[in-house]
Amino acid sequence: MFWRPVSLFLFLLNLIPSSLGFAAWLKCSRRLEEGEIIMNNEVRKAPAEEPSVKLAVYDVSGSRLDVPSEENDGDFIVWIDASDPSPSLSFVIRMDPEMVKEMADLQYVVETSPFDGVKGGASGEPSRSKTPSHQHSRPSPTPMILTAPSPATAVTKSSFVNASNGGGILCNGRRGHARGKNGSVKYELATKTKSKQRDDSSASEDDSLLAEIVAGYSEYHGPVTLTRRVLFKRKDTQAESRTAGQGEL
């Protein structure tokens, strides 16, 4: 009579809120990277060919900010004016509407790095899961939706702080998730920090790099595919203006 345990498992699986999608299975100790196992499927790397699904970054007024990297490496850049005195800046992150308009039941998780708000090592990187990669971990509880920090609160880390209906915040703000073509997450970027490039071979320091984000997306409960990175970098626009002015003489 093995059907009873199977029926019970399917019943419990259906209790997982549908709005969470694969985000419910992505424990904080599991990495959002190629080869990780989510829902018994390996995470796929971002496609090399264009066009491909990508993130879109907007400021609070609705203006889109991400531009292709000048290095032609497939990444995208959001330039931050180095002369801006604000300790933090707010952004709305969603999937590029043109790239997902034909997709059904879109769901995604977006992650910020570096991040120091999750318990783990000194840098905040959580320890690896002890669950074998071929097994499911128990789904996470319904994530708490955090409110944005008040203007008087000093933002010391870049993190996700809110999400649209059906989404939420995971891992103390290191990740956010949303669902649907119009789903979005709100991102607070700490602008007075210094970061390091995320490079497994040699983590070279880059004073202009503030943070980076990457997302994994899926349709229904299919395999998760990564997007290209979006890098938030400082840019000294005043120095460039002076240089341009000297060139015009």
Pick out its properties.
about 250 residues, 8-stranded mixed beta sheet, 4-stranded antiparallel beta sheet, 14 strands, globular, disordered C terminus
SSE arrangement:
Layout: H1 3-14, E1 37-38, E2 41-42, E3 55-58, E4 67-68, E5 76-81, E6 88-95, H2 97-100, E7 106-113, E8 159-163, E9 168-170, E10 175-179, E11 185-190, E12 209-219, E13 225-226, E14 230-235, H3 237-248
Range of helix content: 10-25%
Overall mean pLDDT stands at: 75
Q: Report the strand count.
A: 14
The termini sit apart by 88 Å
Report the radius of gyration as a whole number of Å. Answer: 19 Å
Alpha-beta content class: alpha+beta
Major sheet attributes = 8 strands, mixed
Shape: globular
> How much strand?
25-35%
Task: Provide the low-confidence segments as ranges.
Answer: 8-19, 117-153, 197-204, 242-249
**Could you spell the SSE succession in H and E letters?**
HEEEEEEHEEEEEEEEH
Work out the helix count: 3
Give a brief outline of the structure:
By secondary structure, the chain is an alpha+beta fold.
Structure description:
With 249 residues, the chain is an alpha+beta fold. The chain has three helices and 14 strands. The strands form three sheets. Strands 4, 5, 7, 9, 10, 12, 13 and 14 form an eight-stranded mixed beta sheet that branches. A four-stranded antiparallel beta sheet has the order 3-6-11-8. It has a two-stranded antiparallel ribbon with strand order 1-2. A hairpin with a 7-residue loop joins β4 and β5. The radius of gyration is 19 Å and the shape is globular. It starts with a helix and ends with a helix. The C terminus is likely disordered.
